[in-house]
Structure formats: structure tokens, C-alpha cells
Amino acid sequence: MYKKHSDFADYRSVMAEQLDRILEGAILDLKGLDRPIIIESIELLFNCGLYFIRTRSKDGLLGISVCNDRIRFSYLILEKLIAPFFINKDARDLEMLIEDVYVHESNYKLAGIPYYSCLSALELSILDMLAKAKQVSLGQLFGKRIHDSARVYVASGNRHTSAEEELEILQAEVERIGARAIKYKIGGRMSKNQDSVAGRSEKLIYGSRKFFGEDMMIHADGNGSFDVETAVYFGRIMEEINGYFYEEPCPFDDLWATKGVCDRLSIPLAFGEQETSLRRFRWLVENHGADVIQPDILYHGGLVRTTKVAKMAELAGMTVTPHVSTGFCFVYILHLSSYTPNIGKYQENKKGFEITNELLDGQLTLADGQLNIPDSIGVGIREGHEMLKKALVLVAVK
């Protein structure tokens, strides 16, 4: 019989009023910032395959963030509809501005990942600026630092490989960073029950336990491949091998199917990487639609909104293990981890560690399956970094 790992708490029922208080309440600790910080300019930069937002205040403060690469398709939303709204506004009003820009020029009609990718990038640059003004690390704007490191799992993201090839690829990554947890893809990715290669998913699940032994923490990701019955079938196999958690087996917009699978399985069900609605996250928490909540900070609109999701999940005893949409995103997850009590034990180690650590001037150490959480002021990107000095300015709003 499957026994859920002790890292996961049992679900606790929560009242709608409790969740509403979180959604309507303030998150940031801006004590000590007594003078206005007026936003003067917002720029979108590009260099070395990375997109940056640089926000400047009228008194010379700079905030810098790294965007996900989706912004290359949606940057006009930033340039025309979001950034102009923030010019001449007080950065200390960030939480209110996030709400108000949603209805400005009917921006809610664009709601979804393209819109929130732009908003998150801007929000994170403003948070960097606020943290610098307060002389604290990014996470300390949200709460007391309770964690100094995070364990990681390795994930290859492949579906074109055979089960045998995939296990060898994962083994190489496990050996390289000393990880004690892995994640692989099953199904065919939004494929209506079709496997990427016939029989690959069963062979990979059973083979992974035999290959890695009993101590490895094993996650499987369906990427919306299955209907409820097929999802439960593969979930039962994951339970047979004592899997750690089972991610997004059903299409991401079918919350009801996801809950249907969650209700029938004992293995923790993880879900939420494509979700951009705080109300739908509220539904998942209130209705126990999943066990592990997975907002993507860069898809979901930033750290303020993600922290609200984490706080709702905490009330229900649910774990938060954010999705990683781009390499630098794991740095923001580290800062989220610093103050979040219900953060998942293992976070994804996305490719791009080397260039990320170059941006942070070597602040990160990845060893024995763990990453340290930076304690530098702000997010830790130096304003005069060569990568920024040589960056191409794509958008400038003043």
C-alpha cells in the first residue's frame, strides 16, 4: 500500500473567508520607506539570450529583473499598456498598482500568461528597487528568513528518448550535482492519452525505481496528457513504485478532471504551472483540487501574487513547489523559499545555472543536491554588470 512521504501534510479544510482575507490583504513589509520612490523610467533590455527589465526612480534607484523568454512575443503589452501606467507612480504602492493596472485600458481582456509575463518582470524589478531602498534581500520584503538553502531535483524534459536513454541522462545529472530527486516526463504532452512512444511511460516509471533504488525521490510529469481514467492508471503505477509526487496529469484548464484524479489517488498530485488566476488557485485550495500547488512566478504575475497563493496553500496544509519557466526563475524561487514555511522540499534545477551565477557574481553554490539562498541586497544583480552595460535597449518608457 502506498504511503505518502512525510514531507507532505494532510489536507485541512479552510473557510472561504480565510482565503479571501489573504487575497485582499497586504503582503509586503515596507516599514522604514518613509519617502516616495517615484518611478521615472522602465526599460526592456536584451543580451546573451536573456531579457531584463530595468526600472529607475527619480532619485536614482535602479531595480533589475530577468524575464522569461515569452516576453519576446508579448513585450508590446509591456510597452504600450503596462509600463506607461507605472510611470510617475510611487513604487511603495506596488500592491495597489498591480491591481489597478489590471483594469487600466481594459487590460483584463488580455489576462493570461502573455500579460502576466510582462507584469511579473516589471513587478520583480520594482521589488528589487524597493529591497535596495530598504537595504534588505528580496525575500525580506515578504517575511523573516527561515531557510538558507533549498534542495533540488533534476529533470531532463525529454519525451523523444527511450526509457533506457532517459534513465542514463538523468543519472548523469544526478551524479553531476549530487541530487537525491528526479523528475521525468510521461505521456505525450496534451496528447489525449497517447504516449510519446508506445509503452514508454510504464517502462520509464517501473524502470526508474529499479535503476535508482529505493532512496531516490521520483516525480513524474504528465503535462496534461491524460483523461481521468488514464491519469489514475498511471498514478497507480507511481504509487506502486512509491513515487514522490505526480504532476499535471490532466489538461491544465480542466480543474475538475484534476480534482477527480486527486480524489482517487494517495500519491500527492501537483498542479498549477499554467494558472494565472488567483481565484482559480483559491478554488484549488478550497476544494482540495491538488495537494502540491505549482505557480510559476514569471507566468503568474510575480512574487506578490505567488506569495498569496503560498499563504492560501499553507492554511490548507498544502505544499508549494513552483514551476520553473526559465533558467533565472529558480533564483526567485530561492527567495520565495527563504520566507515560505510550506515550500516544497525539492525545487527544480533548471538549466542555465552557469549564466545565472555569472549574473550574480558567483553567489550561488550548487553541491550535494542543494542550492544556497542568496542574502545580497535585492535580488543580487550588480547594476554595473557587463551583461547589462552591453545590453541592447529594446523598449524605453519614460
Give me the secondary-structure topology.
Blueprint: H1 16-24, E1 39-47, E2 50-57, E3 62-66, H2 71-86, H3 94-103, H4 113-134, E4 149-155, H5 163-177, E5 181-185, H6 200-212, E6 217-221, H7 228-240, E7 245-247, H8 255-264, E8 269-271, H9 278-286, E9 292-293, H10 297-300, H11 303-315, E10 319-320, H12 329-339, E11 346-348, H13 353-359, E12 366-367, E13 370-372, H14 386-389, E14 392-397
Parallel strand pairs: 4-5, 4-11, 5-6, 6-7, 7-8, 8-9, 9-10
Antiparallel strand pairs: 1-2, 1-14, 2-3, 4-13, 12-13
Helix pairs in contact: 1-11, 2-4, 5-6, 6-7, 7-8, 9-11
CA-atom Rg in angstroms: 21 Å
Through-space gap between termini: 61 Å
What is the averaged pLDDT score? 97
Secondary-structure arrangement, i.e. CATH architecture of the largest domain: Alpha-Beta Barrel
Q: What is the CATH superfamily of the largest domain?
A: Enolase-like C-terminal domain
Briefly, what CATH class of the largest domain? Alpha Beta
Characterize the main sheet: 10 strands, mixed
Number of helices: 14
The helix content is 25-40%
CATH fold group of the largest domain: TIM Barrel
Q: How many domains is the backbone divided into?
A: 2
Q: What share of the residues does DSSP label as strand, in percent?
A: 15-25%
Shape verdict: globular
What is the strand tally? 14
Helix and strand string, N-terminal first? HEEEHHHEHEHEHEHEHEHHEHEHEEHE
Q: What's the oligomerization state?
A: single chain
Low-confidence runs of at least 5 consecutive residues: none
User: Given the helix and strand composition, which structural class is it?
Assistant: alpha/beta
